[in-house]
Specification:
Length: 343
């Protein structure tokens, strides 16, 4: 029977050979570990998924030794039954033929029963490699996988490839792409963010997973790395501040005293909403950046245009409406996933 963990949360499984970089990836992405410190990681370190307050549900599996498809006791369903994406990490700085063979074997074994699982290959540790060499390796790996699969009758198997490193934002970019494919109502979320950018004249808006700083959705204007980095850095600032001053949940009487009548009325009169306090504006040189908590996992971050301060009441009101819309969409997602889980 499916466990309760997956309800409403996209579940990812990270696999690959020992020392390929799995623990490093999960520590950097989910525990804010500085990349240099991964040098001293125990290879066996595991992500504590229970403790993870992320929009995603995340598991890490090591090779070799854990998966034996020929062992009759191997419970495939327990491993693959609920996952949305299988992320396979290949160390690009090492000999990778064995990794590819194992990946091929895994795909061939799970494809018939779990054809809905997205296979995402992270060609990892590409930081030390030249542009040309990176592309050569990617071409070689893609070729070897597609050849093997088509030999077994799988033409054009849906496998995606990403060049990643924990020393830059490529690992976060790759996760964003992986996670976006698992969100059922992504176009609706994107449309809401587009509306928001138009009505508030924002340059860019992201819906971020707070813990990992992976963006779950963004408006349709192109993602540029500097703006993405600014937004994700600001989440760090807010998380640090909120670790000091506390995030949710606050005691009910405290909230009432601070935000109940008559204060809420006053706030509503001024801004059209009662949650102005969780909308924070910071400045990057001249452009204000707006953060608004959406739910326990997600935060809306937008880069505003210069001199948008005078429009703040209108901006706050629009943000409020969009946050409500986002929550509705996410609620539908949750219900839908719940139903599917129950089948
Ligand atoms: P695991 O056994 O798959 O969990 O691998 P680890 O996370 O323990 O990583 C093995 C080694 O690879 C560590 O020394 C990491 O510092 C290193 N590593 C991980 N990711 C990267 C990367 O993106 N670039 C480089 N150059 N080294 C990395």
């Amino acid at each position: 029977a499916p466990g309760p963990a997956a309800k409403g949360k996209p579940r990812l499984l990270l696999m690959g050979q020992r020392r390929s970089g799995k623990s490093s990836i999960s520590s950097v992405v989910f525990n804010k570990m500085p990349p240099n410190e991964t040098l001293f990681l125990e290879s066996t370190a595991r992500v504590q998924k229970e403790a993870m307050r992320s929009f995603m549900d995340f598991q890490v599996w090591d090779f070799p030794g854990q998966l034996d498809f020929f062992d009759p006791n191997f419970d495939q369903d327990a491993v693959f039954g609920e996952i949305g994406a299988l992320i396979w990490v290949i160390d690009a700085q090492d000999e990778y033929l064995d990794a590819i063979n194992r990946l091929n074997m895994t795909i061939l074994n799970i494809q018939p029963a779990y054809s809905n699982i997205n296979i995402e290959v992270f060609i990892h540790k590409v930081d030390g490699l030249s542009e040309d060499y990176k592309l050569d390796i990617q071409r070689d790996i893609m070729q070897r996988i597609q050849d093997e699969l088509s030999d077994h009758g799988f033409e054009n198997a849906p496998i995606n490839f990403h060049l990643t490193s924990i020393y830059n934002h490529s690992i976060f970019e790759a996760f964003s792409k992986v996670i976006q494919k698992l969100i059922p109502h992504l176009p609706t979320l994107e449309a809401l963010l587009n509306d928001l950018c138009r009505s508030c004249r924002f340059e860019k808006a992201y819906l971020f997973d707070i813990v990992s700083k992976i963006y779950v959705a963004t408006d349709s204007s192109p993602v540029d790395m500097p703006s993405y980095e600014i937004c994700s850095d600001y989440i760090d600032v807010i998380v640090d501040v909120s670790e000091i001053f506390g995030w949710a949940p606050r005691p009910e009487d405290y909230v009432k005293a601070l935000e109940g009548p008559p204060w809420n009325k006053k706030l509503e009169d001024q801004t059209g909403c009662g949650a102005a306090e969780s909308c924070i504006v910071l400045t990057d040189q001249k452009r204000p950046i707006m953060l608004r908590e959406v739910n326990t996992y997600l935060v809306l971050v937008a880069i505003m245009k210069e001199g948008s301060y005078e429009k703040m009441p209108l901006v706050t009101m629009n943000v409020e409406t969009v946050v409500k819309g986002l929550l509705e969409v996410l609620e539908i997602t949750k219900q839908r996933n719940g139903v599917e889980d129950g089948r």
